Amino acid sequence: MEHNLKIIVFDDDPTGSQTVHGCSLLLDFSSNNLKAGLADSGPLLFLITNSRALEPAQVVELFTTICKRLKPLLAELDRPWLVVSRGDSTLRGHTPLEQELICSLLGPFHANLLVPAFPQGGRTTLAGQHLLHGEPVHLSPFGKDRRFAYSSSDLGQWLEFKSGGRLKAARIKNLHAADSLADLATGQWAVVDAQTPQDLDDLGKSLRQELLEAGKRHFCQSAASLLNGLAQIPAIQFSLAQLPPRQGPGLVLVGSYVPLADQQLELLLAEPSCRGVEFPVDQWLANPASNPLNLGLQRQQLSAIAAAGLTPVLFSSRGERQAISADQQNQLALAMAELALSLPPPLAYLIAKGGTTSFTLLRDGLGLERLRLLGQLLPGLSLLQAQPAHPIWGEMPIVTFPGNLGDASSLKKCWQLLEQWRLGT
Questions:
Q1: 372: which of 6, 40, 129, 264 lies 20 to 30 Å off by Cα?
Q2: Is the same domain home to 71 and 214?
């Protein structure tokens, strides 16, 4: 029975499947797609909502639509199920709004667990404090995010702040991942300490037992690592040797604005086989929608680099820029995706850096509804293929690269692995 559990993951950007493999990712939430995803024999179904890039009113509209379509399908499902809202391990996103929507429309659920630990990426929780490489996460650049800034790494205080005071820090329980969940009251929030993948495997086992043995369906707001324990899927590195060779150059698309992305981009562009093409964000923002920026020069540059057998790297301009809305961010990502895909086929592979960049490329640029997750190329970096094959780009492997993941050399290492596979070296 345990192995028959279906876990429906509302994922707030397309990178949250970064610790598992062999499952479906949905970008379109028609009833037929949802039904097909639930019917898949695998334990995990990812619903890529990209809600982190949306405004609260848009989140309400999207989640209401999804949940109303899901509810009758779950009532007919002949296997036990759980729901997880997979969010950012550096605490950016629409918590507790997403929890409130899911619980009101798909509930009842018993207790609510906040589990942002992602040990593979250096995110741990100790004594209710969330840490990034051992330091309080609110002191990192992520705590100063333009849209989701916060001033405390104490998860109880963070929940109180995020809820506008509705959730009181003093009433939020602190648990270790190995603790029993039996004493949690209906509707109670708990934050969970975890420092290792084994901690999260232990918690996953407890959550399964609570459902299958005690009939308690808890709701989890978590980072990616908990999903391994829930689904009993080990994190493995995918070998590119399993894929047939492909023709054409690779392509790298970088839209993330966090300082780590700047460092990674700088090291990648120092590689002799890479050539950068800058997408001029400020000029693009200055142009009204009725008079879009002429990007003919950038198209020519991308084509010339690819024709020379080098890797084009299309990146949004770096440095300080005016604040942009969520809608502008999505429009910018679409403009970059369309420019990137103006390259003639074939492409051997594509790397997309940044959550909104990846999502927009997959759903709007490539027009995909479903993806198959092959596994991780490097820890936290998911390798995807269109399902079914794309009519133009076929089964081109696509790496979704979170903006906040890795160290300065991680993007270069990812590119090097794909180049070695492409060249057969």
A1: 264
A2: yes
